[in-house]
Model the fold of this input.
Amino acid sequence: MLILGLLLLAAAGAFTGLLIAGNLSGGPEYTVSVLGQDIATMNTLAVFCSGLALALLFCAGVSAVVHRRRERPRTHAAHPGDPGR
Done:
């Protein structure tokens, strides 16, 4: 299972690298606006890289939540007269 995970990770990294290398020439530019205010003008590569950064932040947040859930102490203490849980 570890080998499959590493293979998928390598394939995703290679695909991302090839996609970025293919878009280095620029291309059309897009104006990014939030609440009616123009905040940036980005080309296709910049939009793609910002999507990668947002995905990385999302995964880091999910990982932190899962890690915190595993580290939380149990609230129910085992009592000698308690039936097994």
